[in-house]
Amino acid sequence: MDKNAIVASTILGFLTDTNLSIAEYDNLSTFFYVGSLVSQLPHALAFQKLPVAKYLATMMFLWALLVGCHAAAKNYHTLGTYHLRLFPE
């Protein structure tokens, strides 16, 4: 989930619906930034080695799939799983 969606969903009752504490919410935000930082180098290399249009289309599809999976998350564990491993347990 991107940072803007996390902030906007908090206003709409995200914390109460998923029974998140403030510390767990902060952890989810940290997972987002760590994942973004770790993925910078592989994406930069992929842009140089792969066709840009196909790479961007694939990344947009995967991002949409990942954000769509967040609708199934009901608690901190499943939200963290989506952020860290891209699939639920």
Key attributes of the depicted protein:
89 residues; elongated; disordered C terminus
Helix and strand topology:
Blueprint lengths: L2 H9 L2 H4 L4 H28 L2 H18 L6 H10 L4
Helix pairs in contact: 3-5
Give a brief outline of the structure.
The protein is mainly α and 89 residues long.
- Assembly status: single chain
Number of domains: 1
Instruction: Please identify the structural class as seen in this structure.
Output: mainly alpha
What gross morphology would you assign?
elongated
Mean pLDDT: 77
The counted number of beta strands is 0
The Cα radius of gyration reads 14 Å
Largest sheet: none
Q: What is the CA–CA distance across the termini?
A: 18 Å
- Count of individual helical segments: 5
Low-confidence stretches: 85-89
What amount of the residues lies in strands?
A: under 5%
Folded structure, characterized:
- The chain has 89 residues and is mainly alpha-helical.
- It has one domain.
- Helices cover 78% and strands 0% of the residues.
- It contains 5 helices and no strands.
- The protein has helices at 3-11, 14-17, 22-49, 52-69, 76-85.
- The longest helix has 28 residues, at 22-49.
